[in-house]
Specification:
The chain is an all-alpha fold. It has 14 helices and no strands. The radius of gyration is 18 Å and the shape is globular. The chain binds protoporphyrin IX containing FE.
């Protein structure tokens, strides 16, 4: 378990940055992409070689140019606005803080945040993040390599409750308030980023357990299911958690908060 090793001034900066991130992420409706940035910085961790992980290396052109990071430069630039006001905060901490705040401001659980991560510019080779066209064995290969479990895989996949609505990310709030139904107006997304199209849930800016509810319903008009989503249904060890989280949002929030904290602290041993 990580313990804070930062000084009081640093903690104050974190507190200020957290407040600024709350306002920024809410105003820009960019919670989904901020959460994805945090996950993609952390999700390269290799527990055997102790390389990758939440170390800010995704800010290097080499790494954000990886195919799986398509679109994340936007989130990196958003974070730079906060970084310029709080230069002492490491990128590694800032990206993870943004991920935690993204979950919080969209109505998700509070994920405990411990600062003190160090920055690195050493990027792992491409290919450490999951490939959405594959099945359960691949998900296990990838997440076990991070040192995470079946339960973490399913709980964290619930992060797909969020998906950005591109036009809203770039436009002002005035435009948002004119839209009675955000989904009906802008619900299709991102064929240009991942090759996949459409949101997972009807309210892609609300963090809830609807990802699991929709998953169990099967095919739904206009909603996205990746092969890796279907794998969570087909594999009995995964499916038990899908069923639990679909019927018990508190159980999902509890497990999600635990798994997200683990993800955000991969390889982060301080003290
Ligand atoms: C988006 C794959 C796990 C959070 C996406 C997209 C794909 C994908 C293909 C669409 C990207 C786009 O076109 O914009 C996967 C696979 C996973 C996985 C195969 C393996 C289990 C996770 C985890 C989290 C997460 C663990 C966080 C806890 C997100 C979010 C988005 C997203 C928030 C929406 C980003 C946006 O709309 O801006 N993911 N993902 N994903 N993923 Fe995942």
């Amino acid at each position: 378990m990580a313990m804070p090793v930062v000084d009081t001034e640093y903690l104050k900066e974190i507190d200020k940055a957290r407040r600024e991130l709350r306002a920024f992420i809410s105003n820009k409706n960019c919670a989904p992409i901020m959460l994805r940035l945090a996950w993609h910085d952390a999700g390269t961790y290799d527990v055997n070689t102790k390389t990758g992980g939440p170390n800010g290396s995704i800010r290097t052109e080499e790494e954000y140019s990886h195919g799986s990071n398509n679109g994340l430069k936007i989130a990196i630039d958003f974070c730079e606005e906060i970084k310029s006001k709080h230069p002492r905060i490491t990128y590694a901490d800032l990206y993870q803080l943004a991920g935690v705040v993204a979950v919080e401001v969209t109505g998700g659980p509070t994920v405990d945040f411990v600062p003190g991560r160090k920055d690195s510019k050493i990027s792992p080779k491409e290919g450490r993040l999951p490939n959405a066209t594959k099945g359960a064995p691949h998900l296990r290969d990838i997440f076990y390599r991070m040192g995470l479990s079946d339960k973490d895989i399913v709980a964290l996949s619930g992060g797909h409750t969020l998906q950005s609505i591109p036009k809203l990310v770039f436009q002002s709030q005035v435009i948002i308030s004119k839209h009675v139904s955000i989904f009906a107006t802008h619900g299709k997304a991102h064929a240009d980023r991942s090759g996949f199209d459409g949101p997972w849930t009807r309210e892609p800016l609300k963090f809830d357990n609807s990802y699991f509810v929709e998953l169990l319903k099967g095919e739904s008009e206009g909603l996205l299911k990746l092969p890796t989503d279907i794998a969570l249904l087909d594999d009995p060890a995964f499916r038990q958690y899908v069923e639990l989280y679909a019927k018990d949002e508190d159980a999902f929030f509890n497990d999600y908060a635990t798994s997200h904290k683990k993800l955000s602290e991969l390889g982060f041993i301080s003290g």
